[in-house]
Write a structure and sequence with these properties.
about 230 residues; mainly beta; Methylamine Dehydrogenase, Chain H; four-stranded antiparallel beta sheet; about 0% helix; disordered C terminus
């Protein structure tokens, strides 16, 4: 049975089917990110400590501080056992293949053309990896950089493809769906959609009252060819 978990400053809570909320025992506090692959649930705290729970066992700390940089994003690859990602500031992606015990950085991101021009509005204007999305076709990963755009690597971070034609570069969330041809992105200048794997983007603002959009969750409709239910703000 699926469950809904909520990470908060005061711990992790479970939303029950009867709409009651109960605290999860032994869970960490000051939770910044929650992610699951269906078998394990991971939590990253505001101190950047990584915790894990397997099924209904007690929560255990995996690593007290996986990286020294400030963490802005966290993701689990549902296709590859043990594959985790951390996005940091300055903009670099870290990867673990053993469930978070050991990490390596994709320094190749610094070689992306235009990297030195990436920025962030508040001083000291340092960009960061704001969004991470494992690719549907396995062993690939998208990153959304605030402010720098969207990039895809399909070779363990050796090279990165720029997916930014028509896209506002202040990216908050990137969401691939289906086979990866359909992509959605929230940015500092609205909601965007691509139907060709990110090669081209178009802004979609009908029904939105403001252009600054941040989180985005997409759910499948009953029509296989479409994805029409969204939650974002």
């Amino acid at each position: 049975m699926s469950q809904i978990l909520i990470g908060t400053e005061n711990g992790i809570f479970q939303l029950k089917s009867d709409n009651t909320v109960v605290e999860v025992e032994s869970a960490p506090r000051r939770v910044k990110f929650l992610a699951t692959n269906g078998l394990k649930v991971y939590a990253l705290t505001r101190e950047d400590a990584l915790w894990c729970q397997t099924e209904n066992a007690s929560w255990e700390i995996v690593h007290p501080k996986p990286v020294k940089e400030e963490v802005w994003s966290f993701a689990i690859d549902p296709h590859l056992t043990g594959r985790l990602y951390l996005g940091v500031s300055p903009a670099v992606l870290y990867q673990s293949d053993d469930g978070g015990k050991n990490w390596k950085g994709y320094e190749s991101i610094r070689q992306i053309p235009g990297y030195e021009q990436w920025t962030f509005p508040p001083p000291p204007h340092i960009p960061h990896v704001r969004s991470i999305a494992p690719a549907p076709n396995r062993d690939g990963v998208y990153i959304g950089v605030e402010e720098g755009g969207i990039y895809l690597s399909q070779n363990q971070g050796e090279t990165w493809d720029s997916l930014n034609e028509g896209l506002y570069w202040d990216v908050h969330t990137v969401v691939p769906v289906g086979d990866g041809l359909r992509l959605y992105a929230t940015t500092g200048n609205g909601f965007y959609r691509s139907d060709d794997g990110g090669q081209h983007w178009r802004q979609m603002m009908q029904g939105l009252e403001r252009s600054y959009t941040v989180p985005c969750v997409a759910s499948k409709s009953q029509t296989p060819a479409s994805l029409n239910n969204f939650l974002f703000s």
